[in-house]
Write a structure and sequence with these properties.
about 375 residues; alpha+beta; six-stranded antiparallel β-barrel; 18 strands; about 15% helix; about 30% strand
Amino acid sequence: MTESQRPSGEYPMYPSYGNGDAAYPPPPSYRPAEPIATGPGTTVWPGGNDGGSGGNGVGGPDFPPPAPQEPAAPRHRARRPVALLAAVAIAAAIVGGGTATVIEQLTGGGTNSAASGVVPGTTVSQSNKGTVSGVAKAVSPMIVEINATSTAGESTGSGVVITSDGEIVTNNHVISGASSIKVTLSTGKTYTADVVGTDPDKDLALIKLQGASGLKTATLGDSSAVAVGDQVVAIGSPEGLTGTVTSGIVSALDRDVTVAKEDGSGQGQSGQGGQGGGEQWPFEFGGRQFNGDTGESTTTYKAIQTDASLNPGNSGGALINMNGEIIGINSAMYSASSSSGSNSSSAGSVGLGFAIPVNTLKADLDTLRAGNSS
């Protein structure tokens, strides 16, 4: 057995409670009360020295019981899990939100236009919004070339696909008097088309492709929201050049344009001259005639004026805003060469074109679909 080498008395001796300032641990600021009676499960503490109950009904000095204290360690342990859970919840929310965004972008879900990548109500992608190339890429598949054959020969115009099963709107003067109508899509596929309805007073016509389905359709906009100076794009088949894109601005609104009505013979058809030599479509504006004589039977409508280049063959094509919405159907253009007597194929645009407002078309669709003619 090994004895300690430390002399006795060298071990520190700590005084107990009540030995003065040197007490360790420091004594409480009051004298702890002691129970006067203890039974199983019961402790009675002394009451006040005035004979009052002191809150416990027993006489004696009124010393308050020591305040209960919780161990420090458990409190630290309790806070750590709370902080940890909060951090985990925040991290889960961040990861979950990011995952949901990725899923929406991949599936096209959600109501945010940026998630789907398409401007609401249009066919132009968000990244290409406001660009001519973006509008051309989005809308070109909905613009077709129309070849109409009549007793006067063959002429070329354009049209806009408005239903997936092949309804196409164009100018009445493009297909007036035609015995045969062939339509070529932007893909090069060709269909035979039938006339559904015409409205010579508005220079509008509706044709439908035979056996078509699953076609991309154009979005009809609101021409009442168009303002002078708005940038626009025109797409059509001038001189038989399918899918030609030009751009410009809206030069004026509500121009009174007068054009010839159909006469049943196919005379005056617009577009590129074919075997029979179709004539350039004449029109009147401000009491003057352009591109030839409009004849005696005419109609007048309010038109959108644009400086986007239009040429023979653009008739029936689309005038489009920068969101990819159709705001007008191109119908007339002025050619400086027409007065010299040269044929239509040598005439060119000088930045004076007109389009039928799309709201006029939308108001007339039911009439055209019913096969009525005014």
